[in-house]
Write a structure and sequence with these properties.
single chain, mainly alpha, 71% helix
């Protein structure tokens, strides 16, 4: 006589979820995500919404005491967008960003390729090149302002010794000031580009270069057909990060030229600062700030679409 015993699956056993199992997992997932969501809402979402609202208000220093900020409609936007200085600042921002990104990337890539080869003091030289990136930007701007000074600057003194243009107004000429600021920003950004691109180069398999050498490819052909295609994701990251940090730059321009001479180096960043903290027109400053956010958002969308298409 055999006795059959029914086996009842225990709660929590494999294949038999206990009571509230899926709900607990969902709560646990939200528990990990919630701090990041709260952080983003407090430190990014609220300031962004507040800035948009401020751009539609008459927001003055008196508002900080009374709390009254009358609704202005599109008056702030109309005033800023019709101002000739806004168009000039927008153009300078585009030129400054494009020139800085191009110079930083080309110089950084050249140095990354150079240091990817082993030679004595390689690590020491790479460490020294990082110094401009480690120094605070305001300090770099003040130092370069002294170097580029028309009368007492080191650069003009050196050029005067060579007998070549020893009195060039690098920062006081409307025709040279923007170029000078771009060159200084390139100098500051080269180390960052070099470090990221150098890391990308180290991840390229050596077998690809060996195969190219067996096929008789020249150094330039190998660089164009092997290095650049494999390095494309790293290049994209470098350009995106460089764009985000360059398009809104403020401290370097203030330290070098303060937006002058004759608004020749006025950018959207400096225009936001001057509207808000010099003219105390916080509504107009919020408008220019929103334009900066919009430009960054458009660039981010283009980047995401390009990445998605590349992934397909």
């Amino acid at each position: 006589m055999t006795t059959s015993t029914a086996t009842v699956p225990a709660s929590g056993a494999a294949g038999a979820p206990g009571p509230g199992g899926p709900h607990r997992r969902r709560l646990a997932q939200w528990g990990f995500v919630a701090p990041a969501v709260v952080f983003m809402l407090l430190f990014f979402g609220y300031p962004l919404v507040r800035n948009v609202v401020m751009s539609f208000q008459h927001y003055t220093p008196r508002t900080f005491f009374t709390g009254e900020a009358p609704f202005a409609g599109f008056d702030n936007w109309s005033h800023v967008l019709r101002d000739a200085l806004f168009g000039k600042a927008l153009w300078h921002t585009l030129v400054f960003t494009a020139g800085s990104l191009l110079g930083q990337f080309c110089a950084g890539l050249a140095l990354a390729v150079f240091f990817s080869r082993r030679f004595p003091l390689n690590g020491v030289l790479r460490s020294l090149i990082l110094l401009p990136w480690l120094v605070p930007m305001v300090v770099s701007g003040i130092v370069w302002r002294r170097i580029l000074d028309q009368d007492t600057g080191v650069l003009n003194s050196f050029l005067d010794t060579l007998g070549v243009g020893g009195h060039t107004p690098w920062l006081t000429s409307p025709h040279l000031a923007l170029l000078s600021v771009i060159l200084v920003n390139i100098w500051i950004g080269i180390p960052f580009n070099m470090v990221i691109l150098y890391g990308g180069l180290q991840e390229i398999p050596r077998e690809l270069y060996e195969a190219a050498a067996l096929d008789g490819a020249s150094a330039w052909r190998t660089f164009r057909s092997v290095t650049l295609p494999v390095l494309r994701p790293v290049i994209t990251v470098v350009l995106v990060l460089g764009f985000m940090s360059t398009v809104k730059i403020l401290d370097l321009v203030l330290a070098l030229t303060e937006g002058g001479p004759a608004d020749a180096t006025q950018t959207l960043g400096t225009l936001t600062y001057q509207n808000s903290f010099v003219r105390l027109d916080f509504g107009a400053g919020a408008v220019v700030g929103n334009v900066l956010v919009l430009v960054s958002a458009v660039f981010a969308v283009i980047y995401l679409r390009a990445g998605r298409n590349e992934g397909k």
